[in-house]
Amino acid sequence: IPVDVDLIEAINELKKEKNALLMAHYYQDNEIQDIADFVGDSLALAWEASKTDADIILLAGVLFMGETAKILSPQKKVLVPDFNAGCSLADSCPAEDFKAFIRRYPDHIVVTYVNTTADVKALSDIVVTSTNAVKIINSIPKDKKIIFGPDRNLGNYLQSISGREMVIWDGACHVHEKFSVEKIIDLKKDYPDAEIIAHPECKKPVLTIADFIGSTASLLKHTQTADADQFIVATESGVIHQMKKASPDKAFIPAPPSDSTCGCNDCEFMRLNTLRKIYLTLKYEYPEVQVAENIRKEAIKPIEKMFELSE
Ligand code: 13P
User: Fold this and answer.
1) ipTM for this prediction
2) Is the pLDDT of residue 262 over 80?
3) How far is ligand 1, taken at its centre, from the CA of residue 75, in Å?
4) Which atom in ligand 1 lies closest to the alpha carbon of residue 219?
5) Model confidence pLDDT, tens digit, residues 131-180
6) Residue 208's CB: how many other CB atoms inside 10 A?
7) Which of 130, 152, 242, 271 to mutate to test the pocket of ligand 1 (most atoms within 8 A of CB)?
8) Which amino acids bring their CB within 6 angstroms of ligand 1?
9) Which domains does the chain show, CATH number per domain?
């Protein structure tokens, strides 16, 4: 790319020329969120991908998000700027192992979090996101047994909220697992009026001290409606950009992880995306997400079930 290229201008031109929709998850860098046509949580991104009339979807997020978009919009070209942008949760649940796991519980409904590969979705009965998981688990008849995967923290949280016992896969998100309850308690001493808000992928001790628990979209909404004007935010720090934009007079303090000196907690996979990569991806329409048709046909069923149950 010539050094004098204005990347933002060039990306905007390519988007128009190619009828491309640029979608970004809340965990992207601020500048990517600002240039995106649509910024959202996992549920909103999936929903938007299912109804867009763009010819190209460029998903600035991690690979499973691009796969979900491709499953829902097979006729569209779906691009993800860096295929190394994986997800520790999706990686913690290889399809072959999950298949053997669910075989041990043949009379169970298989509910999986959206952070999985297309192959794992194809083995599932219902997909959930953190925005609709409580509602969907509560909608499953009481006499049905449930397998939940791959996030053990979200699974344990759902068990405690719904009172339903579930067989839970032992996976976790490396970012949310890292938050230090001790450091959050220390931080609260400096900000005694701050609310602690946390994503349900956090470990139980963090969720126990949280004033509010929810998906990225729910946390964002909560900061806009709550009386508090200071928040300690226990999720990937990218979402703070939208919180500040929506409530410029409120203060948002990233919850610290146990092993960092910078005080915030970023997902290195999400942050692999850059404006430069987005420009090149749009220009060359590469790399393109592919999902084998036999897998796609199975994987779309639990996602459509999710849309039906979360209405
Ligand atoms: P939500 O987008 O559902 O809040 O989940 C966050 C996440 O884990 C993205 O990988």
Assistant:
1) 0.95
2) no
3) 25
4) 4
5) 999 999 999 999 999 999 999 999 999 999 999 999 999 999 999 999 99
6) 11
7) 130
8) 41-42, 87, 115, 129-131, 173, 201, 215-216
9) 7-85+270-290 (3.40.50.10800), 89-173+296-309 (3.40.50.10800), 176-254 (3.40.50.10800)
**CA-114 nearest atom, ligand 1:** 3
pTM, full prediction: 0.96
Residue 3: which pLDDT band, with cuts at 50, 70 and 90?
confident
Give yes or no for residue 195 having a pLDDT over 90. yes
Mutate to test the pocket of ligand 1, among 33, 80, 199, 269 (most ligand atoms within 8 A of CB): 199
Please, what is the Cα angle at 311 between 40 and 117, to 5 degrees?
55
- Inform me whether the pLDDT recorded for 95 exceeds 80: yes
pLDDT at 261 over 70: no
Q: Encoding tokens for residue 63?
A: 């690979």
CA of 43 from ligand 1 middle (Å) equals 8
